Amino acid sequence: MKLKLIELIICFSLTPTCSAVLPLVINTWPFKDATTTAWSTLCSGGSALDAVEAGCAQCEKLQCDGSVGYGGSPDETGETTLDAMIMNGDTMEVGAVGQLRRIKNAIGVARAVMERTKHTFLVGESASVFAENMGFLAEDLTTNQSLSIFTKWLKENCQPNYRQHVSPDPSTSCGPYKPQAMFQRRRRGQLIDIHAHDTIGMIVINQAGQVAAGTSTNGARHKVPGRVGDSPIAGAGAYADSTVGGAAATGDGDIMMRFLPSYLAVEQMRAGVDPSAACRTAITRIKKHFPDFFGAVVCANMTGSYGAACNKRPGFSQFPFMVFNRKSNVPRQEMVDCI
Ligand SMILES: *[C@@H]1O[C@H](CO)[C@@H](O)[C@H](O)[C@H]1NC(C)=O
Ligand SMILES: *[C@@H]1O[C@H](CO)[C@@H](O)[C@H](O)[C@H]1NC(C)=O
């Protein structure tokens, strides 16, 4: 969606007394249309939650990088499933879905979980039935693109994969699965595929200081069916607290979810640490245990300062993210050097 100039002008003229730095939209990766959509949602009177939902939903529609939305990251059976969450930093409510099937608008379902149930997290087939009951359209998430990724993987004897033991799986025609070591060797060569791990993670702080954060992803390519990553886990994929700020993460979710990097970054900011340093602390904590992990975190505080950090590894020395605020006037891509 293109940002309409008129919306920008309205946004500016309606809020002449605001601080110079809020509102703020920040998201992982150069997913510019998501940033723009979130900003124009704020400008047309939407809440921070509305902006996060609309921004991430835009990526779901556009299949950002093939790693968000339908038609990407087929699992071992060829199916695309989605993970998403949304968090309200005013009320500390969270809605999340994991391994969502058939529904393209995962973050919309996450919001429905938050607002239309007393639960926080629904998964799998039951989450999809819930979504259908809520009126979300059931569609096939498989596309020619995801089918061709899957077919190629089958032809290559299901390599790479996430198994650690040779274990022929009778439920698929593939295999035998090879140990994880083989996957890692391939990845240490030139085959590092960061697009197997991208996620949109977004933080929005509106004029009134409401923080919302959210994520959406189709998970890890060739994942074991049932696998849920960090993205829909509160404190891992994203976290928001309107007294402090917000954080969102992307990368190797299987590792990152063990460290709650978004929660850690927000707690750092609560203790007075600036956003860049808070993000670095979250990365450093993981790095201590998994020096080669792939991941990045974005952070923002209540005065509209923001930062990011990423773990340096071969082929990944800088992390791009998007920012939209009064200073930028346009969705601006920034880069941070990895540590
Ligand atoms: C998908 O592939 C089928 C069969 O090869 C083809 O007929 C169809 O047009 C393709 N669809 C798209 C959207 O490319
Ligand atoms: C946000 O971070 C900036 C940069 O470190 C700092 O100057 C500012 O005081 C912080 N704001 C809050 C509310 O902590």
From TrEMBL:
One Gene Ontology cellular component annotation? lysosome
Q: Which residues form the active site?
A: 199 (nucleophile)
Signal peptide per UniProt: 1-20
Gene3D superfamilies this protein is in? Answer: (Glycosyl)asparaginase
Its EC number(s): 3.5.1.26
- Write down the InterPro entries for this protein, in alphabetical order: Ntn_hydrolases_N (IPR029055), Peptidase_T2 (IPR000246)
Database matches in CDD domains: Glycosylasparaginase
Which residues does the record give as substrate binding sites? 227-230, 250-253
User: Which SUPFAM superfamilies does this chain map to?
Assistant: N-terminal nucleophile aminohydrolases (Ntn hydrolases)
The Swiss-Prot or TrEMBL record annotates one GO molecular function as: N4-(beta-N-acetylglucosaminyl)-L-asparaginase activity
Under Pfam families, the record lists: Asparaginase_2 (PF01112)
Could you tell me the keywords of this UniProt record?
Answer: Autocatalytic cleavage, Hydrolase, Protease, Signal
Q: Where is this site: Cleavage?
A: 198-199
Superkingdom of this entry's organism? Answer: Eukaryota
**What biological-process terms (Gene Ontology) are attached?**
proteolysis
- Catalytic activity annotated for this protein? N(4)-(beta-N-acetyl-D-glucosaminyl)-L-asparagine + H2O = N-acetyl-beta-D-glucosaminylamine + L-aspartate + H(+)
The UniProt family comment states: Belongs to the Ntn-hydrolase family.
The entry's function note states: Cleaves the GlcNAc-Asn bond which joins oligosaccharides to the peptide of asparagine-linked glycoproteins.
Listed PANTHER family: L-ASPARAGINASE (PTHR10188), N(4)-(BETA-N-ACETYLGLUCOSAMINYL)-L-ASPARAGINASE (PTHR10188:SF6)
The name of this protein is: N(4)-(Beta-N-acetylglucosaminyl)-L-asparaginase
